[in-house]
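Lab notebook: predicted structure, single chain.

Context: the supervisor wants predicted structures on file for every construct in the current expression panel, including those that have not yet been purified. This is the next one on the list. No modifications to the sequence; it matches the entry in the shared construct table.
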Amino acid sequence: MNTNKILLAGLIGGAASFLLGWLVWGVVLADFMKSNAGSATGVMKPESEMVWWALIVGNLAGGLLLALIFGRWGSISTFLTGAKAGAVIGLLIGISFDMTMLATSNIMTLNGALVDILANAVVAGVVGGIVGWFLGRK
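Prediction complete. Output recorded below exactly as produced.
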C-alpha cells in the first residue's frame, strides 16, 4: 500500500485517538478512574501541567501503529475489519499495560484496570475502524 496513504491514515487515526481519549478518559470515565486510583499519590498531573506535545505524539504513534499494521501486513481496508482488528489490538495492549502496572505499582485498583482495558479496546476499535475505512478509500 502507498506509504503516503498509510501516513495520512495514521495521522487521521492519531487525531481520532486524541479526541476519543479526551471523551472516554477525560469526560466519561474521569470520576470512575479517580475513584479507582490506587494508593499512589501525586501520579496524575492536573490539566494545567500536562505535557501536551507528548500526549499528541503518543496518540499519533498509536494511529500510525494501526495504519502500518493494517496497510502493510493486514490488508485491512474496511471500517468493520479495522474495528475488529483495532479492538483486539487495543484489548491486548490494554491487558499488557494495565496488568503489568497493577502487578508492579499502586496506580489503580483491579476494577480500574479492567475498565481501562475495556476502554482501550473500544477506543482502539473505533480508531481502527476509521483507519481501515480511510485505507479502503479509492
